[in-house]
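=== RUN LOG ===
request id: a7f3
mode: sequence -> structure
chains: 1
length: 382
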Amino acid sequence: MDGGVLRPTWAGLLMFGVERKIRELLPHWHLSYKEVADEPSPRVRWLDRVHPDGTWNANLLQFFRRAYQRLSERIKVPFAIAENGQRIEETQVHDAFREAVVNTLIHADHQGPTGIRIIRRGPDVEFINPGLLLVSAEPVWKGGISSCRNPALQRLFNIVSLGEREGSGGPTIRQAWDAQHWRWPKLSQDAEHGETHLVLTQESLLPDDVVAAVEARHPGALDDQDKVGRVILVTAEAEREVQHARIRELCPDAHPHDITLKLAELSKRGLLRSEGRTRATVYSPAPTAQSTAQSTAQSTAQSTLEGVQAQRWAQASAVEEAILEYCAGEFRSLRDIAGAISRSIKTARNYVRKLASDGRLTLRFPDAPRHPDQAYRTKEQP
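=== RESULT ===
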């Protein structure tokens, strides 16, 4: 009540208010959901988008409904019947995504300049909100501790049954991802821009094709390994390199000392090769005797490629030349390229995107950048 006039609270305005009125108080108000392609394409900037375009009232409740609908459409629902005979239409993954969206909205600094963004790229969904964490990441995943930037908003979401009890969002997400055996969610902060980022990836910790690659490289290597050992070997194969901190992310229940011992064991057995010291050591898949011999035999024809393989750090121009050399005359997958240059898939993807954008690499499926069999070949010079 203000001067005898009933006015909404800040939380009520952001949750249920009219977009025009919200913008009068918050000129930078922006809510965005966007699905983008895995690979760059100048013709396709995004595949699906929700943003304040005048076709809907851009308050938090309306944005939640639209963003969550997009996310839930892609979740697989197995056929299951509840005790009352009704089919179960939602899973733990639905609960996790719902919590992720709600937490993004209630923990945001809504007076910040960057706005709220949700970005889907392939199996990854990234939630970005202005404002840094008010607690460290560890209590977020353990639960029970709630330090919400907007407690009134949190109560409003609870009233409309769109939020769990305080401090339960992290454990809800963690339990869902553990049940699916997906890669552990990554929670980070961008201090420079004052933002919090949460990435939920729906990729298996142990993908079948990568497990097969490890078995082909070292037959039987996974048979006598515990979960931590299998995750280390498979991650090193998939990402071409791995460090202690990365395994802590993927196996948060493992004690750091146990991870150290496991990395040392795998290195001693010749399943990993290491560079560096202490926990900054970088581990990569150890080559088999056959692959070492093949590399030696091809060294004359692939001098640039070999030089990049042998160096932990190389000039960007040398890495680009090595990729072009490797892809000359034959389409190569992103995983093959990463293996050839002894870099992570993420690093290889960055180089490939630039080379494709520059027109030096051609795509096997140029009209479908996200095609599961996408591959790249060096463009022939006229």
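=== NOTES ===
The chain has three domains: 10-201, 208-285, 289-378.
The two ends are 75 Å apart (CA to CA).
=== END ===
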